[in-house]
Amino acid sequence: MVVTDRKTGNINAPEAVTYSAIIYCLRCLISEDIPLNQGCLKPVNVRIPAKSFLSPSSKAAVVGGNVLTSQRVTDVILRCFQACAASQGDCNNLTFGFGGHTADGSREPIKGFGYYETIAGGSGAGPTWDGTNGVHTHMTNTRITDAEVFERRYPVLLREFGLRSGSAGNGQHRGGQGVIRDIEFRIPVQASILSERRVYRPYGLAGGEDAACGVNYWIRKVQKGGKGLDAEQWEERKISLGGKNTASMAAGERIIVCTPGGGG
């Protein structure tokens, strides 16, 4: 595995994240039930270059290390052993809310709220099994808020939450499908997405097809040009947010997260 220098972004991962990914993979690969502790790594020689993104300084940004980089370390190890095709490869971290401190500290903190979720995707196929649709894989073992509770407690409408047809990699054993999550905001909020596999597709193995990349859309309301009554008309524009972005969204605007599938 080629390890590059520390990144200026937030995908740097403390060494503990790499060690956790290694022991996770070992527990997946070994048929015996081994304990989850540091002693199990004694036979493993781990070499992490200093000042790399897997061994950053204490001043490096690391928020994405545990939720994104850990998944890619897992991908590398499982691929080395040809154990299974790639799963979605990230956690699809979505946050939104409003309030808090102003950027310059000129006003008292505004009382608001914050919401955070991770979104499922497809798992990779193996030598004797198909991947699973719409599931949390590897480090994404979290639950998501029920739709009814989500809409009742937060100013949102859940327009769609279902499987993403055509996102799985085909093969003798098919990968799992990703999901589509379409959220409309009823008040202005700031929304952020932290995701991966938006450019490079989750790989297939042994001739199996790669899965589809994920994509994140901002459905923005834009006022049409014109005079009189026409000036009050609005239209929707679909804007790709890329893999990592933050946007201030107005009431009635939406974010659509289409998560990657699993390789075949």
Uncertain parts: none
Biggest pleated sheet: 5 strands, antiparallel
Q: Given the structure, what is the number of helices? A: 3
Compute the separation of the termini in Å: 23 Å
Secondary structural class: alpha+beta
Oligomer: single chain
Arithmetic mean pLDDT: 89
SSE string: HHEEHEEEEEEE
**How much helix is in the residues?**
10-25%
Strand order, biggest sheet?
A: 3-4-9-6-7
The number of E-state strands comes to 9
Please tell me about this protein's structure.
The protein has 264 residues and is α+β, with helices and mostly antiparallel strands. It is 14% helix and 25% strand. The chain is built from three helices and nine strands. The chain has helices spanning 15-29, 65-80, 147-153; strands at 93-100, 110-118, 156-163, 179-185, 189-194, 215-223, 234-240, 244-249, 254-258. The strands form two sheets. It has a five-stranded antiparallel sheet. It has a four-stranded antiparallel sheet with strand order 2-1-5-8, with no helix packed on it. Helix 1 packs across helix 2. The protein is globular.
Topology:
Layout: H1 15-29, H2 65-80, E1 93-100, E2 110-118, H3 147-153, E3 156-163, E4 179-185, E5 189-194, E6 215-223, E7 234-240, E8 244-249, E9 254-258
Antiparallel strand pairs: 1-2, 1-5, 3-4, 4-9, 5-8, 6-7, 6-9
Helix pairs in contact: 1-2
Task: Give a short summary of the structure.
The protein has 264 residues and is an alpha+beta fold. Helix content is 14%, strand content 25%.
Main traits of this protein?
five-stranded antiparallel sheet; single chain; 264 residues; four-stranded antiparallel sheet
